Amino acid sequence: MNQRTYITALLAFSFVLTLFTPIIAQQPKSEAEIRKLLAKSRSKDLKVSDEANEQLSKLDSSSVPALVVILKKGNSCERVRAAGYINEFDPKNPNVIPAMTKLISESSLKVLFNVQEEMMCRRAAGQVLALSADGIKELKQLLKDGDDWERETAIFALDDLTETANYPEGSLPVMTELIPEIGRATKAKNEVLSGMADEVLGQIARGPNTELSELVKKYIK
Asked: pTM of the entire structure?
């Protein structure tokens, strides 16, 4: 093979390689692969966690089916992380809100290991609900009818939401309905709940939305 023929063959091989490389890189990861990466991402070894998070950052919409499986049957932390990725790739996915509501409402007796981490992840499920108008409706229901754990989780999520005042599209009507529930929560015997409810009302009052700010004033102590 002369030099010209060799170079032509090499260029042809390189072209073929560029065609196939993106296909290989974009193959969706399986449920098992994603769960392994999620576990490694929580490692105390920074090198391990950084590498796992780097791989997780490459997930895309093709991973949604595997993420939905994790959302439904993973542990608490896996389910919340899966919900976050699904929201990024498929914001209207119908599986997220029911899964996060269920996670919040599950009995704490089911949390047998890594109690602190599990509880934190279950709290984080409320923050996922706060990302959409339909999710805020679930927070309203939890705040109204939930037990102490559920009501606290709802008010913590609303605290984060009202602190930034970055309300999701279409959420103004449900926020309007939610304010009286927050007002009632300020009178709860649970001091954590009542204290956080006061804080949430104050943040809404100081926020940029004039309609909500005016509505909330009659509930402020």
From this structure: 0.80
